[in-house]
């Protein structure tokens, strides 16, 4: 089957999709967007978290056919998504994204091999600065989830952060630096107001 | 053939924080990892690539009567189906130390999930369905699942014709390796004991549960060879095992490290490497294999489950008199790293304590359970769980404070290990306990707020099982000792190639090693070392591959020590060559070139007095200086097979934990409230990464204390919970605050005085949590993990 949907603001068309394929597979293997990760492929680890019409979902549990006509944001588009949110008149960066807005923005392409000069969203920068990245396999899913958490709740308590990220497994860090990163991003967001 | 997309080209140290050693420099791969661009092994993609799939045994122990692949081969989209009979070379087995593991099962399967056949097809689902069409007829055999069944008089031998180098000294062919250690005289020492404490402990099977599944891409090359992009812990060890099975010389098997999503020991053994190469060479097409989580549980070895029998004695004033123990590790169906795990369990079974009279035996069994091998802590973890339980029992019997009792018996620099080896660098065991005990305690009833109980901070969490009723707090302590580096006489070297040249007017260093960066931050540290030693800002880390000499394994807490040492050494040699060039060009202009101690700092040649002699760029001009050199730590010796004596270890690493838990005693639910750690790291080359390692290791110890266990059915030896639905690892809600106190006492034998740090925190975390639960509940608790039924008396 053919699936038409929007990924990071760009219309995409995937052909010859087998009905059993997940959104995760289509993103990774058909659209060249392997940023969403395949740690468990059973909805337990959160490494494949993307936003589907603004809602965080495990893309491994979404059948590709279900995204027909809908809007997907992956980690590859997160920086531009956050930038657009801020430029859209939301000073805190935490005003939510309307469906219209979500469907109109466009991510910029990057093909950097080194990542130098890449513009990052506040949560991405905070993960680097706080040492929240080790092997990094959980990172894309955590970033999408944490960005959405801060969009909903710009000043989360520690218990809020733990609850908000409890669907994302990390095996390297013991989560302490991830807590630090979310606190840091929230603090920087607050300072920017 | 075009190279695959996602091929790692280079990783440069990003713009900010260009620090040398001792600074919390940020990861060079951080930006790639937060943008989703970092290419992990499962992200590799190649035009025209096929997908490989492995068919695994559905039973644990059986003769293979027949395999019928006809229907699978006839499936549209299928390019190849291979079984044992299709293997191209004389060599059909592999293994880390003992080559006992068949690439594909031959005649017999020895554990649940053993690879039997492999398929290549144009879509992963086609490959899966084709594999399911392969008909394998099994004639089941009795299963060996524990010591009693392994050593029974009529026991079936898991391996019939052993010819490995351990068979001569083991008492039974179902024992992989046995290491006794005898020192002093336990019978005499026991006479001095006022109290004797015995215990029998059980340690469950833990999984590494790295998040990036086993995966890779094998690309056939025009010269008949193959290029494998792979996530592993040791490229050259893989190469040594892969090439003979493919019937290729090692130079026709090129290996490049793809992005590695964690390892923790689980990537020391081969998984899909040979299978992908076989299918690529058979079909002439690139082949990608990616396990899903279910398969990953069958695709790598686990931590050895263990039974540990301990006896300790102490005088009434609290001095340990003797220790006797027997440690039985279940190695499962294939040897993997079992012999080395036995050596560790045995030689570290006393813990960080002074006991002159010991009688120790450790063995690993061959059984039909899942193969077990390396996992963070490697034999020392199981022992620590048991000896720390013993310390608490002794302290209780003596009416002493458990921390003071440990401090009274703590080893220190100069202590003789049970192997006869003196501890010749700082061993601040008592001090670490003092520090961890001195940390402020978390507030009582921290769940209470003005709006009532915050259930997220209570046992049972959002399940809303208690608002504080039946909740009891407990506190527990533990300390452990781990060896650093490969032991027992292993030639544990690493290789580094360092180059310095001028690019765009600026001196740039390139560091090339085969070290597997698995998340630990080795590449960060290599760049820091190069900056410190060569005085340059720009450092490029070359991708790890087999075009440079072996770096050894990313395991045993060894990489910063050994490959870090190799990078430091290569930098020093490069510096000498640079200074020679400088002397040749500029020596006549300033006498200090000949007389002073010269350094490279800030892109310049300077004297130790700080006088600038030349710009590095002017010294080098268009010349590049490059050195590739092996580096070794001081040698070790094997342990004597009868007495266990020998200078077997390179270095030791120590950590202590204090756990604070709250237990809902009615439902048997545990909330770990805080898990504080104090660790001696010798020298923190990157303090941010050091703390990250300690917190990560601590959390894996927490996991095996309260939730993580692979459940193997004792009747069938089949794995019952191969998923993240049923094998639980700690979430962010299960994990408490982990305050860390880092002590830096230099080891004069190690580069910069550093100490390998990655494993020690995984040891003491588990027994500290268990001690805290015992403290809260008054229960004995002689097994880990603890489940609700163990706390409610319903087990």
The Rg value of chain A, from CA coordinates, equals 16 Å
By CATH's scheme, which homologous superfamily of the largest domain in chain A applies?
[2Fe-2S]-binding domain
Mean of residue pLDDT values of chain A? 89
Name of the CATH architecture of the domain at 428-486 and 649-792 in chain B: 2-Layer Sandwich
Radius of gyration of chain B (Å): 27 Å
Strand arrangement, largest sheet of chain A? 2-1-5-3-4
Proportion in helices of chain B: 25-40%
Percent of residues in β-strands of chain A: 5-15%
CATH evolutionary superfamily of the domain at 428-486 and 649-792 in chain B: Aldehyde oxidase/xanthine dehydrogenase, molybdopterin binding domain
The helix content of chain A, as a percent range, equals: 25-40%
Mean pLDDT of chain B: 96
Shape of chain B: globular
Pfam families (chain A): Fer2 (PF00111), Fer2_2 (PF01799)
Keywords (chain A): 2Fe-2S, Iron, Iron-sulfur, Metal-binding, Oxidoreductase
Protein name (chain A): (2Fe-2S)-binding protein
Domain 2Fe-2S ferredoxin-type (chain A): 1-78
Structural notes for this entry:
Chain A: Pfam families: Fer2 (PF00111), Fer2_2 (PF01799). Chain A: Keywords: 2Fe-2S, Iron, Iron-sulfur, Metal-binding, Oxidoreductase. Chain A: This is (2Fe-2S)-binding protein. Chain A: Residues 1-78 form the 2Fe-2S ferredoxin-type domain. Chain B: Residues 1-28 are annotated as: Disordered. Chain B: This is Xanthine dehydrogenase family protein molybdopterin-binding subunit. The complex is a heterodimer of chains A (193) and B (795). Chain A has 193 residues and is an alpha+beta fold. Chain A folds into two domains: 3-75, Ubiquitin-like (UB roll) (Roll), CATH 3.10.20; 79-192, [2Fe-2S]-binding domain (DNA polymerase, domain 1, Orthogonal Bundle), CATH 1.10.150. Chain A has seven helices and five strands, in the order ββαβββαααααα. Chain A has helices at 23-30, 78-87, 99-104, 122-130, 139-152, 158-164, 176-192, and strands spanning 3-7, 10-14, 49-52, 55-58, 71-73. Chain A has a five-stranded mixed β-sheet, with helices on both faces. Chain A is globular. Chain B is α+β, with helices and mostly antiparallel strands. Among the domains of chain B are: 147-207 and 302-380, Aldehyde Oxidoreductase, domain 4 (2-Layer Sandwich); 428-486 and 649-792, Aldehyde oxidase/xanthine dehydrogenase, molybdopterin binding domain (Aldehyde Oxidoreductase, domain 4); 493-632, Aldehyde oxidase/xanthine dehydrogenase, molybdopterin binding domain (Aldehyde Oxidoreductase, domain 4, 2-Layer Sandwich), CATH 3.30.365. Chain B is built from 19 helices and 34 strands. In chain B, the strands form nine sheets. A seven-stranded mixed β-sheet of chain B has the order 4-8-2-15-12-13-14, sandwiched between helices. In chain B, strand 18 (320-330), helix 9 (338-347) and strand 19 (357-365) form a beta-alpha-beta unit. In chain B, helix 11 runs antiparallel to helix 12. The longest helix of chain B is centred in the last third of the chain and has 28 residues, at 559-586. The N and C termini of chain B lie far apart (60 Å). The relative contact order of chain B is 0.13. The model of chain B has no long low-confidence stretch (mean pLDDT 96). The interface between A and B is large, with 66 and 73 residues.
């Amino acid at each position: 089957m053919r699936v038409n949907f929007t990924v990071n603001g760009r219309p995409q068309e995937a052909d010859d999709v087998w009905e059993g394929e997940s959104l995760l597979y289509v993103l990774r293997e058909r659209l060249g967007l392997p940023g969403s990760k395949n740690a468990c492929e059973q909805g337990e680890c959160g490494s494949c978290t993307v936003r589907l019409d603004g809602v965080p979902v495990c893309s491994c549990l979404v059948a590709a056919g279900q995204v027909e006509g809908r809007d997907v944001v992956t980690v590859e588009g997160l920086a531009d998504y956050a930038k657009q949110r801020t430029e859209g008149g939301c000073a805190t960066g935490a005003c939510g994204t309307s469906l219209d807005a979500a469907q109109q923005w466009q991510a910029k392409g990057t093909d950097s091999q080194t990542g130098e000069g890449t513009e990052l969203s506040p949560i991405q920068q905070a993960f680097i600065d706080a040492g929240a990245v080790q092997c990094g396999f959980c990172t894309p899913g955590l970033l999408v989830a944490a960005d959405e958490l801060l969009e909903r709740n710009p000043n989360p308590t520690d218990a809020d952060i733990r609850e908000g990220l409890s669907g994302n497994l990390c095996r390297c860090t013991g989560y302490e630096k991830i807590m630090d990163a979310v606190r840091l991003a929230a603090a920087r967001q607050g300072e920017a107001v | 053939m075009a190279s695959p997309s996602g091929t790692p080209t280079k990783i440069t140290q990003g713009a900010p924080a260009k620090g040398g050693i001792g600074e919390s420099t940020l990861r060079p791969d951080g930006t790639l990892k937060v943008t989703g661009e970092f290419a992990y092994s499962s992200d590799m993609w190649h035009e025209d690539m096929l997908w490989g799939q492995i068919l695994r045994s559905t039973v644990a122990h059986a003769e293979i009567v027949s395999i019928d692949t006809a229907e699978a081969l006839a499936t549209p989209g299928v390019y190849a189906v291979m079984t044992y009979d299709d293997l191209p070379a004389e060599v059909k087995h592999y293994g880390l130390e003992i080559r006992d593991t068949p690439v594909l099962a031959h005649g017999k399967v020895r554990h649940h999930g053993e690879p039997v056949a492999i398929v290549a097809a144009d879509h992963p689902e086609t490959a899966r369905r084709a594999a399911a069409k392969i008909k394998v007829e099994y004639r089941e055999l009795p299963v060996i699942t524990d010591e009693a069944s392994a050593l029974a008089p009529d026991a079936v031998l898991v391996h019939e014709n052993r010819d490995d180098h351990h068979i001569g000294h083991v008492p039974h062919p179902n024992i992989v390796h046995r290491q006794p250690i005898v020192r002093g005289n336990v019978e005499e020492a026991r006479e001095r004991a006022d109290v004797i404490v015995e215990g029998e402990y059980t340690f469950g099977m833990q999984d590494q549960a790295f998040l990036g599944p086993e995966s890779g891409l094998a690309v056939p090359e025009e010269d008949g060879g193959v290029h494998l992009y792979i996530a592993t812990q040791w490229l050259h060890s893989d190469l040594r095992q892969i090439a003979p099975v493919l019937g290729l010389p090692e130079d026709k098997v090129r290996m490049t490290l793809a992005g590695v999503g964690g390892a923790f020991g689980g990537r020391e053994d081969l998984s899909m490497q040979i299978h992908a190469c076989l299918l690529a060479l058979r079909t002439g097409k690139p082949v990608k294999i990616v396990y899903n989580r279910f398969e990953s549980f069958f695709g790598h070895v686990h931590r050895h489950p263990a039974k540990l029998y301990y006896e300790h004695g102490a005088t009434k004033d609290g001095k340990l008199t003797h220790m006797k123990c027997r440690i039985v590790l279940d190695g499962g169906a294939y040897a993997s790293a079992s012999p080395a795990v036995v050596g560790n369990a045995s030689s570290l079974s006393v813990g960080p304590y002074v006991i002159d009279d010991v009688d120790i035996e450790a063995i690993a069994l061959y059984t039909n359970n899942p193969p077990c091998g390396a996992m963070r802590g490697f034999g020392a973890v199981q022992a620590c769980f048991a000896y720390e339980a013993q310390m608490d029992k002794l302290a209780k019997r003596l009416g002493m404070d458990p921390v003071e009792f440990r401090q009274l018996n703590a080893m220190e620099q100069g202590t003789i290990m049970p192997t006869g080896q003196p501890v010749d660098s700082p061993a601040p065991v008592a001090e670490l306990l003092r520090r961890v005990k001195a940390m402020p305690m978390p507030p009582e009833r921290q769940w209470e707020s003005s709006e009532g109980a915050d259930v997220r901070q209570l046992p049972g969490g959002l399940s809303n099982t208690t608002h504080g009723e039946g909740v009891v707090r407990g506190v527990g302590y533990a300390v452990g000792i781990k060896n650093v580096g490969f032991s027992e006489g292993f030639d544990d070297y690493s290789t580094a190639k360092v180059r310095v040249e001028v690019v765009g007017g600026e001196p740039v260093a390139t560091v090339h090693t085969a070290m597997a960066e698995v998340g630990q931050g080795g590449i960060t540290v290599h760049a820091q070392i190069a900056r410190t030693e060569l005085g340059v800002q720009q450092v490029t880390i070359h991708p790890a591959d087999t075009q440079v000499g072996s770096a050894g394994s990313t395991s045993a807490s060894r990489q910063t020590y050994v490959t870090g040492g190799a990078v430091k050494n290569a930098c020093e040699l490069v510096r000498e060559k640079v200074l020679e060039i400088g002397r040749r060009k500029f020596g006549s202009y300033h006498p200090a070139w000949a007389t002073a101690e010269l350094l490279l700092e800030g892109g310049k040649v300077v004297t130790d007095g700080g006088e600038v002699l030349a710009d590095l760029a002017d010294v080098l001009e268009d010349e590049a200086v490059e050195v590739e050199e092996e580096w070794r730590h001081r040698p070790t010796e094997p342990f004597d097979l009868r007495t266990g004596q020998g200078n077997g270890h390179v270095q030791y690493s120590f950590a202590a934990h204090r756990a604070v838990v709250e237990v809902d005693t009615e439902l048997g639910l545990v909330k770990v409230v805080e898990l504080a750690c104090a660790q001696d790291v010798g020298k923190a080359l990157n303090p941010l990464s050091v703390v990250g390692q300690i917190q990560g290791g601590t959390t894996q110890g927490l996991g095996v204390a309260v939730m993580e266990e692979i459940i193997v059915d004792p009747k069938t030896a089949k794995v019952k919970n191969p998923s993240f639905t049923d094998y639980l690892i700690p979430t962010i809600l299960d994990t408490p605050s982990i305050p860390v106190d880092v002590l830096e006492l230099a080891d004069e034998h190690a580069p910069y005085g550093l100490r390998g740090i990655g494993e020690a925190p995984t040891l003491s975390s588990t027994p500290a949590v268990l001690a805290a639960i015992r403290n809260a509940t008054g229960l004995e608790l002689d097994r880990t993990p603890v489940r609700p039924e163990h706390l409610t008396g319903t087990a």
